[in-house]
Recover the amino acids of this structure.
């Protein structure tokens, strides 16, 4: 028997629903779209913009211009695709390499939109790991948040052992002008 959700073709395992949609129903959230899987043999025959166009068929448009991957994702939430030969790669890397060529050693792909499942080439750029981490920390406000936590702990318990050797995270932003590592005072 097939899942009772109109667009789902997965075998029903829990009453009338597949596991994914039974969980959605139980948690009171809208039914999620099914996971789509590109054919590795079709991937092998494509390159460049044709490969990107093929992969975009497995996305859904978001309001901010993101193309959110509807295929598999890894444990960290990044879009993944099975390539010819069975290797699994992050989809956004496949897209960037198809558009700009191989990613040099020491470089990574940065999501300008901060959406891990986004594979829109306009939202992706090559970046060295240090700048990528610095931007990510700044965007998420980790540095400010860590400072606030440190200040709150100091107010609550000025002699706390975590404050004995203070790390000055406010001076490290990962950009080339910042110190190589957070300074310890």
């Amino acid at each position: 028997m097939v899942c009772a959700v109109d667009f789902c073709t997965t075998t029903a395992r829990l009453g009338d629903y597949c596991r994914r949609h039974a969980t959605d129903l139980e948690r009171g959230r809208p039914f999620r779209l099914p996971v789509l899987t590109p054919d590795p043999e079709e991937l092998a025959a494509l390159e460049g913009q044709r490969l990107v166009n093929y992969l975009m068929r497995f996305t859904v448009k978001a309001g901010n211009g993101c193309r959110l991957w509807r295929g598999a994702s890894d444990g960290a939430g990044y879009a993944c695709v099975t390539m010819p030969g069975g290797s699994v790669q992050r989809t956004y890397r496949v897209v960037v390499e198809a558009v700009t060529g191989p990613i040099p050693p020491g470089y990574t792909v940065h999501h300008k939109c901060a959406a891990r499942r986004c594979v829109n080439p306009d939202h992706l750029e090559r970046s060295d790991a240090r700048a990528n981490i610095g931007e990510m920390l700044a965007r998420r406000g980790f540095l400010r948040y860590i400072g606030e936590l440190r200040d709150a702990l100091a107010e609550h318990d000025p002699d706390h052992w975590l404050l004995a050797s203070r790390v000055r995270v406010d001076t490290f932003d990962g950009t080339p002008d910042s110190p190589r590592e957070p300074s310890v005072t």
